[in-house]
Design brief:
The protein is globular and about 35 Å long. It is mainly α. The chain has seven helices and three strands; from the N terminus they run E-H-H-E-H-H-E-H-H-H. The chain has a three-stranded parallel sheet with strand order 1-2-3. Helix 1 crosses helix 4.
Length: 107
């Protein structure tokens, strides 16, 4: 399975030495370049930076369909954007639908 992550789950799991849980649960994790940059920023701390640099299952991907991203930004509020990950994680959105969208919109 392939999922998309934001900074918080990766950073928080790395800080407690449990980043290996992500590939065990999901396989490949896709992140956008902005998330990768946050994870490697010195403010993230050496523990997070080292863990991310060693995570060979983590893939940085750029969005292919920028117009779709811009459209979503105008239609969704910040709380709904933050909640999106929760709903996908809890199974309220079919994972296959989300994965198909990701494959079509990330290079």
């Amino acid at each position: 399975m392939t999922i998309v992550s934001n900074t918080s789950p990766i950073s928080n799991l790395a800080k407690v030495g449990q980043l290996n849980l992500m590939p065990q649960l999901y396989g490949t994790i896709l992140i956008p370049p902005a998330v990768y940059a946050e994870l490697l920023d010195s403010r993230a701390g050496e523990t997070v930076i080292t863990a991310v640099q060693n995570a060979d299952w983590l893939e940085v991907r750029r969005v292919q369909n920028q117009s779709l991203v811009n459209d979503l930004r105008t239609r969704l509020t910040l709380p709904s954007l933050k909640g999106r990950g929760f709903f996908i994680h809890r199974g309220f959105v079919r994972q296959q639908d989300f994965s198909n969208w990701i494959r079509g919109n990330l290079s």
